[in-house]
Design a protein that fits this description.
Two copies of one chain form a homodimer. Chain A is mainly alpha-helical. The first copy, chain A, has helices at residues 3-32, 39-58, 60-72, 76-92, 97-119, 123-143, 150-158, 164-187, 203-216, 253-272, 281-284, 288-302, 306-319, 321-324, 329-336, 353-368, 377-389, 415-434, 437-442, 446-456, 466-474, 481-494, and strands spanning 224-228, 234-238, 241-246. Chain A has a three-stranded mixed sheet with strand order 1-3-2, sandwiched between helices. In chain A, a hairpin with a 2-residue loop joins strand 2 and strand 3 (241-246).
């Protein structure tokens, strides 16, 4: 192999990641602490950096060198890293630079506008941005070459190997098995009442409980910074530096708690990926369903686990003696696991959660198959909530404005949450055969679980496909039955249904 | 004028400032919230971006275009902006890229190491970085072309128009007039006792008082973000986005208060510079003495002003009723303005402050004139404190490790603090002839003062030289007598000396 070529590639990788790092840091700053009046300038700077990044990354000479290196290389791992890179470069290099930059700029502007629109419950403010992003996304797609439909292409971008047909099959099964159970529960008398978890919970105390969570999950300040933002998210700065955000609601303390645990699931994946992959596509291109499998695993299988709360519930009670004095651990766990159709995805229970995703999936399908009236997206959103969950948003911020994803043109991202949840149930099924999770958590020994996740999943980054990781970790191909069975069993048990 | 050339220049400006913005944001992130374990990677990324920035900025074709535009342009303001840019480019383009990048990388590494060294009071940890930076700074100087000595060149970098001869003259006058007064005060009986300001002041209450300061100085969250760091500093992100930091000491509440006011002096300068200059050298190259004149003006002439504390002292007393119950406003003001030789520059009183600077100035002169044993810098530092202020640091963190400047290779910066203080006294002399500052502040009307500063100083950015601004604002050339007279009068009065 040509040593100069390899040397070129190392420099190329390094420069590309320098641009990405810069844009990452600016994004994080803007989404967390940046003064509002600086947003316009920052967005301009982001667009310029995106342009410089684009010029450098897609320089035809560079791509030719990379292709040549790929052809010459016999190192399997290097070939994987390059293949993931070329996959992206071969598409993105089809774009004129100005189209690419205009898209990035539209995204930055839209993101900041969405924050304001959500804060003000003002869909009209955000709507032109959303429609513009959809238009621009379609324009971009017109430059790319791919098999299947536009939406197939987008789905594959978020998790390599996925398409509409596979998701349709998955969601059909979810719908067939879960909707009847949800309806059965809705008809029951004496439903679990969780109103005691919706009293006033002072936010400074919630922040104190976040410190308890950090302790319990070994969240270390040396490699993980935690702050707040409008919508919780995780940023990966490098192999030893991740940032997670949460947000506090006075009348729903579990929201911040579960969001923190969810985001730390992402963070832990990044921190436990083989450090040798730092700055390469093997650390970056893991796929969103795989990533959500880890955030959802922590959120649901750890954050709603009895052992976990045996350790931590007394500490929550100590902070809120008045609010929680009449709530026993078992009663708390029942309230925490309640199944109740609701409006906000990230606060949804496990059983109704996939329907929140199904709604978004169906809307996105219609958007990219040109089967929808874009003028009425907000109403169609509300209609679908009524259809699938029997609840209708009365406000935009609990309807179409609730999620940040569309404001960032992340079309095709949502389905990976449901798929990730299904992966997580399959992983968890194996995990609990090998480790007594409840007991381990009751002993405040989350490290044992983190080690298992590292060993079986995290370390590989994108060096293995999701199919390979599922197979090696659980002994079989992806099988949604684990997810369905887990939910059905859990909720029949909780609601005493035969 | 060639329109294409002008168009080129706009693109050039924009790309250069995108790199600068990215590096600014990364610097700020690293100095405030970044997890420690990510520092190595972040420093690498900074060095790569510095390299990309260097390649783009110093591209000979670009410089040739800029020179051509300068020759053709008849727009006076554009010529000023370009002249400031070429001044820098003509030097920096003499450097080999690898020398430039290695210097930037050494700075990033040194800055993070200094933080740790200061926290651990460990000079040995920092020493190799400091010596390396001095060596590298000298290496850089060997590439540049300039008249006068190396140190002359550095001084001019921080404030165009300054050199060793001018500073010598200035410091000689300072020394001649202030040292005898300091000695006179030291001999007095019944010195003012400020120990009541060094009781325990809980930090959460100090943070609450920062909110009072924000209110009082119209610090708006829409354009100014305030947080903490090891050493207080200001970052200028854009015309409408500045960041300031402070730090809290449990036994010295005035430290955080005066640091916040000082940094806001810088911030206000940036926020009040003509918005039309955003992203140009006219907003960026104001000069450090001019900048320090505004930070020192706020710190000393506002932050130690009787009217200011008539408004704010009762609020401080409310937060600390126990600590301050026996301290009247007048007694508080006397303690706040005490003259007492001390070890820490940023906590020094106004009278002894210039001697802290003189010490650094003399050391830097010796360093860059090769008249010093670099192995013993820490001891020489302590010796000078003993000589000029009669106090000797017993710890490195109250000696040579106290300031961040040398860790960033900012050699030649310190003298601008003293010069800036002298500018501020001259500005203040005129300001108080036109506005009854004490009364205005007692009425909680800082806006009137901010407007005066904008009108007479801030708006111009670097479109006027410091000589021109002093002349137009005060009616005469720079005259250090105002500074000396102000200090002598104030402290003779306070200490009842004839």
């Amino acid at each position: 192999m040509d040593e100069n070529l390899l040397q070129f590639y190392k420099t190329y990788q390094a420069n590309v990641r320098a641009y990405q790092f810069a844009m990452n840091v600016i994004y994080f700053d803007q989404a967390t602490i940046a003064p509002k009046q600086g947003a316009t300038y920052a967005n301009e700077m982001m667009a310029l950096l995106a342009g410089e990044h684009f010029s450098y990354a897609t320089n035809p000479d560079h791509i030719a060198n990379i292709e040549q290196l790929y052809a010459q290389s016999e190192d399997e791992l290097l070939k994987k890293e390059i293949a993931l890179r070329l996959r992206e470069l071969h598409q993105i290099s089809l774009l004129p630079k100005d189209v690419y930059v205009a898209f990035q700029k539209a995204i930055s502007n839209s993101e900041r506008c969405w924050e304001q629109a959500k804060a003000e419950n003002n869909y009209e403010l955000f709507k032109p941005h959303l429609l513009e992003l959809i238009k621009k996304q379609k324009e971009l797609l017109s430059y790319f070459t791919f098999e299947g439909s536009s939406y197939d292409y987008l789905l594959d971008q978020y998790q390599i190997g996925m398409n509409q047909e596979k998701y349709d099959r998955f969601f059909d099964e979810v719908k067939a098995k879960l909707v009847p159970l949800i309806q059965q529960i809705a008809k029951k008398q004496n439903l679990i009442d969780d109103s005691l978890l919706h009293q006033t919970f002072a936010i400074d105390k919630q922040q104190q409980f976040t410190e308890v969570l950090k302790d319990s999950l070994d969240i270390k300040k040396e490699n993980c910074y935690l702050t707040t933002s409008v919508h919780p998210f995780t940023s990966f700065f490098s192999a030893n530096d991740v940032r997670i955000t949460t947000r506090y609601h006075e009348h729903n303390p579990m929201s911040a708690i579960l969001a923190t645990i969810h985001e730390y699931g992402h963070a832990l994946y990044g921190l436990q990926t083989d450090k040798a992959y730092e700055g390469t596509t093997l650390a970056d291109n893991i796929g969103f369903a795989m990533h959500e499998s880890q955030s959802r695993l922590l959120e649901n299988h750890i954050g709603r686990n009895k052992g976990f709360w045996q350790q931590n519930y007394p500490k929550l009670q100590d902070l809120y003696p008045e609010q929680l004095k009449d709530v026993t651990l078992d009663s708390f766990l029942a309230k925490l696991n309640i199944a109740k159709p609701s409006l906000i995805r990230i606060e949804a229970d496990e059983l109704t959660y996939p329907l929140h995703i199904l709604i978004r999936y169906e809307l996105e399908k219609q958007i990219f198959n040109d089967e929808i009236d874009l003028e009425n997206l907000d109403v169609l959103w509300a209609d679908k909530y009524e259809e699938y969950l029997g609840v209708r948003p009365q406000r935009f911020d609990e309807g179409i404005l609730q999620d940040m994803h569309w404001s960032a043109a992340a079309f095709g991202y949502f389905p990976s949450y449901a798929l990730g949840s299904a992966f997580s149930a399959q992983f968890y099924n194996t995990l609990q055969q090998q480790i007594d999770v409840e007991k381990v958590l009751a002993n405040n020994d989350f490290a044992t679980i983190a080690d298992w996740l590292k060993e079986n999943i995290h370390q590989y980054g994108a060096a293995k496909t999701f199919e390979e990781i599922l197979e090696s970790a659980t002994g079989e191909q992806f099988n949604p039955t684990y997810y369905i069975h887990y939910l059905v069993k859990k909720y029949k048990n909780l609601y005493d249904i035969q």
